[in-house]
Amino acid sequence: MFASGQIPREADGTIITGDVKDQTTQVMENLSAVLEESGSSLDNVVKSTVFLTDTDDFGDFNEVYSEYMSEPYPSRSAFIVASLARTEIDVEVEVIAKID
Length: 100
Fold this sequence. Notes:
Blueprint: E1 2-6, H1 20-37, E2 45-52, H2 58-68, E3 75-80, E4 91-97
Parallel strand pairs: 2-3
Antiparallel strand pairs: 1-4, 2-4
Helix pairs in contact: 1-2
């Protein structure tokens, strides 16, 4: 299952801005919901791609990310980008997961 990039948007469309930890929590919750809807889960993620707008946010991002992912951790690529499609956000994550 290829899940497109998820941003920190709540179900009602509200964008979470500010703290990258809060943004990452919403992104991971969104990914979890998308994966569960397709018959998968975060435990089945084999590859993730992370986009951050600030190198200094990587530690905070990783702290939250590691709360949602379990060993053996999926392979991951991380990119620092000038901006994302929604300029007020700082993180986007896309994943590839197995479907049971």
